[in-house]
Each structure stands twice: as C-alpha cells, then as structure tokens.
Amino acid sequence: MIPAGQPFLMLFGFTGYLAGAVACVIAGWSIAKRGDRNRADRTATMAAIALTAIWCTLGAAFGSNAQFSHIAETARNLAWIFLLFRLFGNDGRDESVRQVRPVIVALIFVECLQPILLVIETRFAITAGLLALTKQISSILHMLVAIGALVLLHNLYAGAAKPSRHLLRWSALALVGLWAFELNFYAVAYFTGQDPVMLEAGRGIAAGLLMIPLALGSHAVAAEMQFRPSRAVAFQTLSLLVIGAYLALMMLMTRSLAMLGGDLARFTQVGFIVLATIATILWLPSPRLRGWLKVTATKHLFQHRYDYRQEWLRFNATIGRPGSAEESFDERAIRAVADITDSPAGILLAPNEEAELELVAHWKWPAIEVPAVAATAALSAMLEEQEFILDLDEVRGNPTSKAFADVPDWLVQETRVWAVVPLLHFERLVGAVVLARPAAARRLDWEDFDLLRVVGRQLASYLAERAGQQALMEASRFDEFNRRIAFVMHDIKNLASQVNLLARNAEKHADNPEFRADMLVTLRSSAEKLNSLLARLGRYGSGHGENRVRIALHELASSLVGRFAKTRNVALVTSTPAFVLGNRDALEQALTHLVQNAIDASEDGAAVHLNVGVDDGNAFVEVIDSGQGMSPQFIRNGLFKPFVSSKDGGFGIGAFEARELIGAMGGRLQVESREGIGTKFIVRLPLAEAGEDDGRKEASIGKVA
C-alpha cells in the first residue's frame, strides 16, 4: 500500500492505473476492429484485456490494496492463464493442448486460493503475526503462478514451428512482461515483508505498456503452431518446477516455525533441513525415482512417449561405438534395445539349425539361468510369422493363450523378464532380445511396440550383414584350404603309385626270399596307410550316408576309452547297450575328435567321462570334461567355425569335422558349457531299429513303384 505521506507516489500510481485502463480500452478496440477473427485466442484475449481494464480502474479509484482490487486482480490473472491455454490450441487441434491441461488446472487452483486468503486476512488475522503470515503465503502463491506461467510460455514459444514464431512473438512478449513483473513484485514483497511501493505505483502503467505488443500480435494471420518442445527442455523445466515448489515449501515451513519462537522453533527448523537433505541424497540418485519422474512427465506432457530423433541417434551411437573395450557387438546390440525402454539388463537369443533359440550373449545379466535350448521352434515360428513382441506380464496373466503354451517355463517363472523383441530380416528370424524389467515398473503400450519393432528390424539387418561377412570369410578360407589339400592329394597319389610300383618290381627282382618277404610287408603296409589317408582326405565335404552298418555304440565307446586310458584319465561311467546305423570309421573319428578336445581342455590328470544311453528313440554319447568351459559367444560364433580355435596353434577343424560327420549320419551334435565349470558334448544318433524300419519302408515303396 502506498503511504499517505508520499503524494508523488500516490499521484504516480493513480495516473499509472488510469493510463493502464485507457491503454486496455484502446488495445481492445484495436483487436475488435483489426484483429484476426479466426484466431482461437481472440475471445480469451478480449476477456483478459477487459478484466485488466477493470482492475486498473479499481486500482485508480480505490487503490491496489482494496478488496475489490484484489478480487479483480484474481479475475485478471485467471483470464491471462486462460489466454495462455488458448494460445497452445491455436493450431485448431485438441491434441495440442491436452499435454498442458494439468499445469493449467494447477495454476488456476493456486490462483483461486487468493480470495480465501483475502477472507482470512480481513476476518481472522487479528494479530500482526497472523496478518504477516497471510501476506507471505499470498506472495508465495502469486510467485508460483508467475513461475508456472513463465514456464508454459517458454514451452509455447520453443515448441512453435519456426514460420510461426515471428507471429507469436508479440503475444508471447506481452505475457512474459506481465508475469515477469508480477514475479518480481511479489518476490520483493515476500523477502522484505512489506509491499514495494515503487513497483506497486508502476503496476498500472506497466500493464498499459504491455497492451501494445498484445494488440500488435493480434493483427497477423495465424499460422499453424504445434506444441513440439524437446524432451530435454521439458524435463529441465519439470526439474525447475520441482525445485521451485521445494524452495517454496521450505520457506513456508521456516516462516511458520519461526512464529513458535524459542529453542523449539530452532530445533524444528534444523531438524527439517537435515531430514530434507537426507531424503534428497537418498532418493534423487535412485534409478527408480528418476524412471518414475521420466514416465510421469512423458505421460502427462507429451503426445508421444519417445523423442524418436534422440532415440535413433542413441541407437546408432551404441551400435557404432562400444561402451568398453571388452563389450562385444552382441552385447552392444542388447544395450541398444535395452536403453530405449530403460531396461537394466538383457540377453540375446539366436536360432540354431533346428530353429530352436539358444543363448548368444548377455548384457549385465550374468546370473540368469538359461537352458541349453532356451526356446523351442514353436516360439521361433510365432515370433517370425507374427512379428510378435512378447509382453511377459500379459502372457503370465493369460495361462490359456497360445503364447503361454509356446513360451518356455523359465521365461514365465523368471519374473525379471519383461519383454521379448524379435529381430527379423526379410521376414526371417535372426534373433530375439529378452529385456529385463525397468526400475520404474510400467506397462508396454502401442508406442513401445512400434519403436521396438522398427529397432528390431534395423538390428536384425546388422546381425545378418555380420553373418554374411563371416560366411564370406569362411568361404575364402575354405577355398585356400581346398587348394592346399588338392596339392597334398596330388603328391600323395604320386607317392602311392611309386610305392605300388616298387612293390611289384620287388616281387620280380628280389632274390632273397626273406628280404623279399619283409620288403613286401613293409611296402604293402605303407601303401595301405597312404590309401587310407587318401580316403579320409577324399571324405571332406562329402556325405557319409552310404554303406551304413549296425554299430554297437557302447562297444565303440569302450574301445575308445581303452585306447586313451593308457595315457589319459578317460572313463566310461555309464554304458547302456545301444545300436545305431552309420559309418563306423567316421563315427569313431568324430568321437576321437571330441575326446581329444576334452583332454586338451582339461588340466593334467583331470578326468574325462563318457556316458552311453538311450533317450526318446535316440542313442547318445556324452563326453564330459571339467575344463575352463566356453562362453556363449564362442559356442555360437567360434566353436563350429573352421580355422577358429581356442587352443594355441589349433587349426579349428576337429569340432567342425565331428559335427559334419555326425550330421551326415542323421545325427546331431549338441554342446552345453559353463565358464569355469566345464563342457559336455552330446552325440545323438537314431537307434538302429528305427533306421532299419525306415529302410524297409523305402525298399517296399520302391518295389511297388
């Protein structure tokens, strides 16, 4: 209130309020005559100008601290807030204003508290302390409204399309000036404990000056405006609001406690500050709290959850630049998908030759237990045919669905598993990323599905391109290997011919019968070895389905153990009688490779165990060692790749050849390994009875034909 002893300030205030009222009338007439009639904010602008004119008139007649002036000020502020709301919808679409409605409602609610405080001040503030407290609370509420309006104005201008900003700038300038003046006025009033007389005297003329840019901004033809602030600006703005609210609460509590007086007030103030500081230190670094704030802000402030440009830049940066030197491409692929949904961990699965999903790599999730066959071909088919992103919470809640039947038990029982994202390349499944539940729990929605589906396809193309490059490199190495083998086979053939010729000449020209006999034995033995080597070299790359015989698998394993047991600790633990059809030499060669690999992987003196058994119409041989084991990445990308070996100086052919030999006989070679524990190779072959039945059926069909 302007003191009565300062006539100059009283005259200046009266003149200013009167000039402000006149300026409002002129601005309203200008907008009514010349303003764009199609603008959505036209009515709101006229109402705000009219209420401002009434407020200025009452301020000139009764002073700014009169009850009528306070009520008019509240009505004026509500009109300006409503005008700000209409500016957001100036593009003609309700979606543009949906995101700011909660903030507008909050500002209106806070402003509507002013009449209540006015009643308390005039009826119940009977002491000077209560009167001062009421004025301080009123100033705080005024500051909160001004801060909220300025934040919305920032988002309004920052989110407008560039061609529209030069049309919007005049209206935005007027509103910024209005709320900035109000913020400074009530901030000074709060911190000084009394009304700033100089600022109070100039409020009317300030309102009148702000009518000029408002009138100018209403004359231009409105262009399309869209609310498109960046996520970073919005989250920073939200942080500013939270900090402002926290400071306002702190000041309010401090002032209220100060009225108690004495040691109790000081102790309470210190305790409040300590507790608030501890709570801030404990909760602000929390990923759960940050995730909740992000989800809440995104849900209420944006039409879309994701900033697609930012997500795409982050995805490409993750794929192109590893986070650490030890991070493989597979781990970066998992992280690129997990970062989108704020998932803290994930694993990558890929289909094998039978379309079963197997573990390839994990990212920040080493403790999860994944079976050797992570998922059956049924799940792969569902992911491939439907491009279906599995929401595991939805699957768990519907046990009668087909998806529940196809999803393996370990995925359903592991509650940390949140979603499965398929990776499709040309409608073919090349992998699947399993995501862990984010710290801030939420449901997957349509926008998550759309973005994850697009990212999955992009990631699948990278994985397919890498697989193609590896195949080309292997083909190039095989070509070089074949050329070398061709030269070796040529030389061996010549040597075999020479030895055979020498043997025939010796039969004709050797005079000493004993010498001739010894020479013949030696030469024929050498010729047989050379021919055997030629036969083995000639088998590379060819099938072994011809000349199959009945093989006692338990006897073959026993003889193999007997051969190695002389120098190594190899034991046959279980020996169930089992008979298969196949090439005995090829099967023995494959098992020899596996046992030798197990011996090489184990420490000196460590045991290698063999088990022979029958399971589901198949005979199997297990070769188990207690070595260092192999990582999922090496099993997937290196174990069965020729020229890739974990042994120094190894050629990388043994495991590859064993799988090829077993596969040619209709069998399968599986591997289970854990780093630091050991490895188990499993050779599975159809039982001889089943193979003989199939052969008889084919023969009978041939006779009928």
UniProtKB/TrEMBL annotation:
Domain Histidine kinase, residue spans: 487-689
Catalytic activity from the UniProt record: ATP + protein L-histidine = ADP + protein N-phospho-L-histidine
Pfam families, alphabetized: HATPase_c
Coiled coil: none
EC number: 2.7.13.3
Transmembrane segments: 12-32, 44-62, 100-120, 140-158, 170-192, 204-221, 233-252, 264-284
Top EC class for this record: transferase
GO terms assigned for molecular function: ATP binding; protein histidine kinase activity
Keywords in alphabetical order: ATP-binding, Kinase, Membrane, Nucleotide-binding, Transferase, Transmembrane, Transmembrane helix
Alphabetized NCBIfam families for the sequence: PEP_his_kin (TIGR02916)
Protein name per its UniProtKB record: histidine kinase
Source organism per UniProt: Altererythrobacter epoxidivorans
